[in-house]
Amino acid sequence: MNIKSISLITVLLFFHTSMAWAHHGWAWTTGGNIELTGIITSAKLGNPHGVLQVDLEGQLWQVEVGQPWRNEQAELKDGDLAEGIEVKIIGEPSSNIEDKLMKAERIYIGDQEYNLYPNRD
After folding, report:
1. Which residue from 11, 30, 79, 84 lies 20 to 30 Å from 17 (Cα-Cα)?
2. DSSP label at 94?
3. pTM of the model
4. pLDDT digits (tens, 9 = 90+) for 56-109
5. Domain 31-120 belongs to what topology?
6. For the chain, the helix, strand and coil percentages under 3-state DSSP, each to the nearest 5
């Protein structure tokens, strides 16, 4: 391999790692919270994090919830986040609000609060 090939591979690896870090971190969010209340239309829980589709008066939002260990720490069980359940979610939306994408910090099912990030309060 020549130096140009090594440099190109290094740049591509850095870019790929940076993009993954930005997605799984908080860099893509606004830094401020919004509240969303709707009905879960689908839930895919697991690693690297769970994803809910939530119907908010006809608008479909994608909501990232915690990793399995984080949901467990918040005392959420997989059955709590199921299709047809009404949830109130407080979290940070995408910096482009048209994406209809948010990262959940707190989830309410009925009167029960599940705090996924207690140290962010």
Report:
1. 30
2. B
3. 0.75
4. 999 999 999 989 999 999 999 879 999 999 999 999 999 888 899 999 999 999
5. OB fold (Dihydrolipoamide Acetyltransferase, E2P) (2.40.50)
6. 30, 40, 30
Cβ 67 vs Cβ 49: under 8 Å: yes
Map out the domains of the chain as residue ranges.
31-120
pLDDT given at position 120: 64
pLDDT confidence band for 28 (50 / 70 / 90): low
Written as one letter, the residue type at 100 is K
Would you list the DSSP string of 42-105?
Answer: EEE--SS--EEEEEETTEEEEEE---HHHHHHTT--GGGS-TT-EEEEEEEEBSSGGG-EEEEE
